[in-house]
Amino acid sequence: MSTAGKVIKCKAAVLWEVKKPFSIEEVEVAPPKAHEVRIKMVASGVCRTDDHVATGSFVTPLPVIVGHEAAGIVESIGEGVTAVKPGDKVIPLVNPQCGKCSVCKHPEGNLCSKNDLSMPRGTMQDGTTRFTCKGKAINHFISTSTFTQYTVVDEISVAKIDPASPLEKVCLIGCAFSTGYGSAVQVAKVTPGSTCVVFGLGGVGLAVVMGCKAAGAARIIGVDTNKDKYAKAKQVGATECINPKDFKKPIHEVLIEMSHGGVDFSFEVVGRLDTMEAALACVQEAYGISVVVGVPPDSQNVSVNPMLLLTGRTWKGAILGGFKCKDTFPRLVSDFMAKKFSLDPLISHVLPFEKINEAFDLLRSGKSIRTVLRF
Ligand code: CND
Ligand code: ZN
Ligand code: ZN
Prior knowledge:
Elements: E1 8-14, E2 23-29, E3 36-45, H1 48-55, E4 69-77, E5 89-92, H2 102-105, E6 131-133, E7 136-138, E8 150-154, E9 158-160, H3 167-170, H4 176-188, E10 195-199, H5 203-214, E11 219-223, H6 230-236, E12 240-242, H7 251-258, E13 265-268, H8 273-281, E14 289-292, H9 307-310, E15 314-317, H10 325-337, E16 347-352, H11 356-364, E17 370-374
Bound molecules: 5-beta-D-ribofuranosylnicotinamide adenine dinucleotide and zinc ion (2 copies).
């Protein structure tokens, strides 16, 4: 029997309060309104950004269904939807692409003005939510909300992908792979023969390493306080890995010495202020480029001597690797299908969706790269 047009009762992981476990609840998912799409979830990765919400470090309205790195199948569509139809395989988009705003029209930017990330409202574009639990409205998360058997997204926040693609792998194109890879090739524009440094060798950091390698970097130095991350990093292209705890000197000084004057490109993929400062300081003073990828703790500022920039360094950052997601994700999925890159090194664990709290324990204890939750 078709579920189109009806409320669907299903399971979702609700975060009622920060610093509490996710609670698997029965939720009601309303049918999609005009220009909205309801998706049956198939697989969702667990990203540190979801954990930042759970710890209170990334602030978005609660209670909420988080999760943003996923793939699923369209269950039904609202009036006027033309981009997808029921049965299509799709990836929800953290960065919508309305195609009309100044950002969508600009050749470089990707944070569409319809985003729910820079000042999260926790709703659909019309300002309301499609989730209800125990009579309470449950908020959406950065246009996606994927820790649920069904979600609803705006048509501008979904990309149709190859019907043959394995969703339990290409879900990582929804965040980790695109964010990391794009930060190297699209944001930093890493050049052949260059020296790169990647702070943080989690799921996103490893994808940065993959991007640096694909761009032809000669030297890729991984920096992580957890030595267990080095083997994987080397497998995907890091030429050496170092632990800041092994040195008496500040890590940026160590890196300047190792590179004889400063590296060409650096990436902060941890989400800490001290590593953001170190990543900026370790690039070559006249032409080095440093990219902020990690999500910083809410309402905190770095203190930086402007001399670091006056001499010629460039400091930038981007969400989702600077990619215009609706245009780029289908192409990245095609590249994956053509075996231009592998997602296997990023997937350390696969668990049933109900074991979501176990997946977060694995992330917090540094034991996982990406856990993919299957629905
Ligand atoms: P994950 O936690 O898997 O990786 C972080 C890594 O940093 C771990 O391997 C840690 O051991 C390491 N680390 C911790 N402290 C230090 C330190 N002081 N020095 C060096 N290494 C350290 O996280 P992830 O890969 O899922 O995400 C990384 C960051 O990227 C995180 O802040 C997340 O919120 C952010 C992010 C950004 C975007 C974007 O669009 N820009 C998208 N998704 C995630
Ligand atoms: Zn993410
Ligand atoms: Zn737009």
